[in-house]
């Protein structure tokens, strides 16, 4: 991961997009303090990328519990929480037991299993063996408190349509 190119979101070719700490709804720096308070494990990150800026490094937390604030908040930053599970059914239940539903990533060797899971969980987008691969032709948006509207794709353009009905009686 450290060999990946880091940089601002609008720069071309970046593998990890940096996010201003002040732009995150629940700052990664705050999450690190929260995790340490609960005794869970901070694997890497949570510090500023460069002492001169407000960018934060990609952050991974392990041994995170379902009832912790970090799993109940929608964090718009480079943060990953690793949660253990015992069964496929438990994954579905836990993934759907949230007030948010913007996106989900599934890493699997079994694509059929990944596709089945994608149909059973409730985010607006599901990426299988990739993450945040977004193109202008595919719609993007969330479920639940992550929003009901869609961006990109045909549905986004429909907001600009002005529909008119014309009825003609043919004699």
UniProtKB/TrEMBL annotation:
Database matches in InterPro entries: Ald_DH/histidinol_DH, Ald_DH_C, Aldehyde_DH_dom
Protein's name according to its UniProt entry: Aldehyde dehydrogenase domain-containing protein
One Gene Ontology term of the molecular function aspect: oxidoreductase activity, acting on the aldehyde or oxo group of donors, NAD or NADP as acceptor
Organism superkingdom: Eukaryota
Domain Aldehyde dehydrogenase, residue spans: 39-166
């Amino acid at each position: 991961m450290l060999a990946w190119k880091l940089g601002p979101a609008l720069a071309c070719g970046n593998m990890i997009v940096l996010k201003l700490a002040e732009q995150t709804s629940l700052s990664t720096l705050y999450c690190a303090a929260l995790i340490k308070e609960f005794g869970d494990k901070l694997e890497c990150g949570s510090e500023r990328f460069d002492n001169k800026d407000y960018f934060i490094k990609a952050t991974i937390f392990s041994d995170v519990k379902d009832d912790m604030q970090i799993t109940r908040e929608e964090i718009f930053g480079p943060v990953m929480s690793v949660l253990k599970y015992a069964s496929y059914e438990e994954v579905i239940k836990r993934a759907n037991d949230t007030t948010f539903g913007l996106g989900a990533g599934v890493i699997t060797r079994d694509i059929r299993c990944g596709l089945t899971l994608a149909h059973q969980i409730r985010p607006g987008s599901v990426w299988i063996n990739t993450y945040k691969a977004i193109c202008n032709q595919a719609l993007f948006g969330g479920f639940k408190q992550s929003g009901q509207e869609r961006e990109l794709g045909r549905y986004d353009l429909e907001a600009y349509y002005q529909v008119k009905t014309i009825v003609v009686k043919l004699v």
